[in-house]
Fold:
Amino acid sequence: MTVYSVPLREMRFVLHDVFRAADTLTALPGFSDSTADLMDAVLDECAKLCEGVLLPINQSGDQEGCSFKDGKVTLPKGFTEAYKQYAEGGWCGLTAEPEFGGQGLPETLDYLVNEMIGSANLSLGLYPSLTQGTILALTALGTAEQKSAYLPKMVSGAWQGCMCLTEPHAGSDLGLLRTKAVPNADGSYSITGTKIFISAGEHDMTENHVHLVLARLPDAPEGSRGISMFIVPKYLVNADGSLGARNAFSAGSIEHKMGMKASVTCVMNYDGAKGWLLGQAHKGLAGMFVMMNKERLFVGSQGISVAETAYQSAATYAKDRIQGRAATGPANPDKPADAIIVHPDIRARLLFSRSIVEAVRALSVWTHINVDISHKHPDAARRQHADDLVGLMTPIVKACGTGYGSEVANTCLQVFGGHGYIREHGMEQLVRDVRITEIYEGTNTIQALDLVGRKLGIEGGRLFKAWISEVESSLKRLEGRNDMGEFTGPLKDAVARLQALTMWLTEEGKKDPNGRGAAANDYLRFFGLTVFAWMWVLMIEAALAKTDDAAFTATKLAVGRYYMQRVLPQIASLDAVVRAGSTSIMALAEGAF
Amino acid sequence: MTVYSVPLREMRFVLHDVFRAADTLTALPGFSDSTADLMDAVLDECAKLCEGVLLPINQSGDQEGCSFKDGKVTLPKGFTEAYKQYAEGGWCGLTAEPEFGGQGLPETLDYLVNEMIGSANLSLGLYPSLTQGTILALTALGTAEQKSAYLPKMVSGAWQGCMCLTEPHAGSDLGLLRTKAVPNADGSYSITGTKIFISAGEHDMTENHVHLVLARLPDAPEGSRGISMFIVPKYLVNADGSLGARNAFSAGSIEHKMGMKASVTCVMNYDGAKGWLLGQAHKGLAGMFVMMNKERLFVGSQGISVAETAYQSAATYAKDRIQGRAATGPANPDKPADAIIVHPDIRARLLFSRSIVEAVRALSVWTHINVDISHKHPDAARRQHADDLVGLMTPIVKACGTGYGSEVANTCLQVFGGHGYIREHGMEQLVRDVRITEIYEGTNTIQALDLVGRKLGIEGGRLFKAWISEVESSLKRLEGRNDMGEFTGPLKDAVARLQALTMWLTEEGKKDPNGRGAAANDYLRFFGLTVFAWMWVLMIEAALAKTDDAAFTATKLAVGRYYMQRVLPQIASLDAVVRAGSTSIMALAEGAF
Structure:
């Protein structure tokens, strides 16, 4: 069984000490209630749900999995009851509009709520996150009637939402999708086609399901510019809000997966199912990105959720398991061996894990504060600046949160030796569960291509410049702070190298059509490590300012030093590999693979 | 379903073109028959077994797993029949002494046989490998009676051997083990205790099982110097060779694991089981290393076995799956999209995989040639030199073969996108199966500590110097070869840096008790990458000398260039991290984790 207690203290440190989030958020229209006290109370409440309800069914959920019979999906024992408690707590509508029953709270808070839910039970947490994505799209694009028909039930968690994009032959390349939508006389459409990898496409936990399905109208242009989005409910909704006829779609099968076994993944068949256009015809991909941007940040948080649980479990085991002796002589001479935490290798694994988890958490909180600013700030320029920062950081949060999340889970499994490989301790489940986060909502390479192929190129690097101005402002503030030189020095160096590499890449991209693609993953990783270094500088600054808890400050300094001395140096190799260009990648003939 | 056909051509290239193995082997006493033709015939024969018998039950074996009832273990469908074919082919005794029914063939050949068996079915291949380890120990340490009682049945594969080391509280630290051996009046011993993680400890595939159990005699000193090894058969063996009474031990349960589900892992309870001392009292650990050294090289080959299958599967998928367009314009304008192999990211994953697989295969063959020399060469100095090389390379083959094996499996899974995460394509099984290889037969950190804490220190670096002399001889031979400068240049640089780092580490080890432990994993990785660069230089040299197949040579050049330009540069960061020392690792107080 894994060990997890919600790291409330760490979350509050980032929220209040590092970013003074309440100051920023309460100044935004609509968020005046989001004081530090209120946010703390929300986090406390959610922590109870996570530790008391969601965590206890995480391992059994994996072992039992979902079952499928005659088009019906049954979830593992306890899931429906746990989900009901989640929904009754109002968690599904935390950030939704009050007009539709939501609590209208900041995305920043939602990030921390999602992080802890994911740590407790990644599979269960995925269900409402899909509803939340659907709520976003309906809120942004729906007509007044659509909103009133669907949103209240989704905000309350009574209905499940899901996103239906992928088809057997169309994954990363959605332009290839074939599902058809034919107009009916009554203004609705008949949807026909097959979708795969549909998380939460069908189950017995909610009374209705609302699918947002991407499909082509008869007059659609080819490729990604001919895709429209449709609302396709499982049960049609009568004018009075009651449920009507069963719609003509159903789950054809469910997938057997590596992990996330309590999160159902369906093949969905639409056989002339009734749907309604959401947003404009042929503009479905833009609508999809309304959900996708939130979902990508959410998936980044999933990576870190698992990493936190892996870290806590491994740290607990390392202090308990005795094996071998410290290199400096017995640390615990009364016992036949020392706790394995005396060994440098075990400590290095734990420190690596923690330095990553804390950096990604800080980055996620900072990014979500900017999400809130980009939504609510009265000043359009401030909104744009914040939106630029979010746009630039989204691929980094997603790809680094999940890529390093997987690495942390694996390195923490290794702390357990052979015990990590067996089911009992739960570590192998974490490794299996987190693996999908590197793939779904756009593989990590898709994220890297979004960064180098799109985000860097917008208006001569406007997004990159917006971020650099933020880092420079931090460095300027800390100029002459000798107590921080060991942190600001490596950050300055990394930023300078990143700027040089970004210029190199921009030039290379003009000369070599494969240049960006060849560089993308390693460049993103370099960027992420530099952003993490910045986060560590901000955390150290805040920790040094905290004079009430010397042990806490000492811990932050120790973990931050580990990051600067033993993690950040990875950029040296990434730099060299990016600059190696695409020649050696493209040379080999296809037939020789 | 994964794709695998035995890479016979690659194997022959390494065996014949790169290392001219037959020249060396046939010159050794007892190996005069091991000509290139004979070895080729053996490989062809084994390839049929792998492709026709072992591969087809790999996926079903994973899905069905092993079952346990009333102390009895049942293996998945088809395993007993497949194992019988394996045994009847004489594969179990490939390297065993002809005196006991073995074929007396070189370990070099056995490596390639094991590599292909592991690629086809890692779980099935583990069973005989354990018997083979047991055969080694019995051959080296057994009395004439013990040998004649056990060896013929084990060499033929009729009986299963296994190694019983780990106990619940004693894994990496075997000094803690508690299983007791009390002498009986008849010269046998009564063994009592519990062993865990016993691969092949019990099953229904063979008529008898022979356990080699580590236990303590009543007068045993504490710690690892008080461990003895005992032969403990499941059914006692009568004087005439027939099977007698059932011995007093049994499987208490089997483990539910992340992968290797068709390879049974037992908890074994010995309740006064009858055993016989193998080798000297209290010298059991030395006996264990007779098996362990072979097993460690074998486990390294398991890593590469899985990596090869992952590579072949991903390359096949990448040429078939169409998604997106090449950056240089449509490669396949008649289809709605190009095969994903046009994308730099996909190619980079495949090239990385292949550059690692080929380097580890070459390294393994070279190491096993030295194993054979160390066993058979008439000149003691030559035997010692070869043994030094093997001793130095064993931790590198084990840790890099499996660490990179895992990385390759994961990167190849990613090529499949979401399809990699579901059971159908078999990629997630590869990732789950290979994960244990980083742990068993000594975790990869135990390997790294063996390298820096033991192997480097022997007689002022004798082993390291032996290896350097080999590399320098290659570099000297290639001096002035302009056509190889792009390969020898990076190798020279890496070797120089490795020498400097090794000196730094030796000094650091004297000053800082935690210095070696802090450096071990990264230092080993640096060393491994340098050795791979050397292997690539040797492969390129051989490929350029091969004038009969321009396409083959071109492929080797392309993959070798990829390695030099995009994999080897990892050493830059590893260098920096090793030199960062242990301070940031050891600083944090235990309670703060």
Observations:
- Residues 443-584 of chain A form one domain.
- The mean pLDDT of chain A is 97.
- Chain A touches chain B through 97 residues (CB under 8 Å).
- DSSP finds 19 helices and eleven strands in chain A.
